[in-house]
């Protein structure tokens, strides 16, 4: 996040530019508050879909940042598996196995193979999404991160 301040008529006006964007939970939500927690994780307090309930979730800051390689992408798969957003163990294992192949080509700096296998990873995500083997939040986040990683390699 980048904060800038401008003073107009003696009053300071702040604006914030967010460097990262990440779908935390699909749907529409009202008032929200994001805070650093004592254990180093982030806490998000928000108003639920029906505007009648408040909810809280916590996650680590890595979840919000853009990934740098397939190992980071694999850690996001681990996170969603732990959070039961990828409820079927077999689905998570297929994703991680595919990312192991991507990692091999990253180490060899074979750009075309990395991009080809990342596109294959997207196809696997699409198939799992269509077969309801992965929740929408995990699917959206992994697709977005994979697109970012592909752009980095091109």
From TrEMBL:
Residue intervals of the FIMAH domain: 71-151
Gene3D superfamilies (alphabetical): 2.120.10.10
InterPro entries the record matches: FIMAH_dom, Sialidase_sf
CDD domains: Sialidase_non-viral
Pfam families (UniProt xref): FIMAH
The name this protein goes by in its record: Exo-alpha-sialidase
Organism the protein comes from: Salicibibacter halophilus
């Amino acid at each position: 996040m980048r904060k800038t301040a401008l003073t107009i008529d003696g009053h300071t006006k702040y604006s914030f530019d967010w460097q990262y964007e990440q779908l935390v939970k699909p749907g529409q939500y009202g008032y929200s508050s994001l805070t650093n927690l004592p254990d180093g994780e982030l806490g998000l307090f928000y108003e639920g879909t029906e505007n009648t309930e408040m909810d809280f979730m916590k996650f680590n800051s890595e979840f919000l940042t853009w990934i740098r390689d397939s190992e980071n992408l694999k850690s996001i798969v681990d996170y969603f598996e732990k959070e039961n957003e990828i409820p079927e163990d077999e689905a998570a294992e297929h994703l991680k196995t595919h990312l192991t192949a991507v990692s091999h080509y990253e180490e060899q700096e074979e750009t075309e193979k990395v991009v080809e296998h990342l596109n294959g990873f997207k196809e696997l995500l699409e198939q799992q999404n269509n077969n309801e083997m992965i929740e929408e939040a995990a699917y959206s986040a992994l697709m977005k991160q994979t697109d970012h990683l592909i752009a980095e390699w091109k």
